[in-house]
Amino acid sequence: MRVSRLILSGAAIGTIIGTGRADLNATHVFNPAWPPHARFHNATGWGTVAGSQLLALWLLWRPGQKATDDDAAVATAALLSAIAWLPFFPALAVTGADVEDEPGHLPRVAGVPLNLIPAALIPSSCALAFLLHRRGR
Question: Which InterPro entries would you find in this protein's record (predicted)?
Answer without folding.
Answer: DUF6640
